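Milestone M4 deliverable, item 7.
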Amino acid sequence: MTRQYTSDHEWVEVDGDIATVGITRYAADKLGDVVYVDLPKPGATVTASTVVGEIESTKSVGELFAPVDGEVVEANQAVVDDPGSINADADAAWLIRVRFTSLPELLSADQYAELTAE
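Output delivered:
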């Protein structure tokens, strides 16, 4: 699976018609210590580029945006129970899985690296 990225700092891995979504290491570092995660429930319909969840840290509140249109099929309860797991390993701490109906153009790893290079 190839990991792709959004300009909102989410990573996306596509497997068939399922998109697994998490936040990037860059986003986790900017947030600081994550203390609370609110995710959509399975069965929820999401629309690309709309807010579907919230990630709170000791210094700010961040929004989770849906990178695709579709239906949430799974939310990672382990991350809800232990929000700090995002800081420990943002690359492995997925948040939601969505059965998507459309897949917008996403950024490659190189494009995302350019975006965050400032």
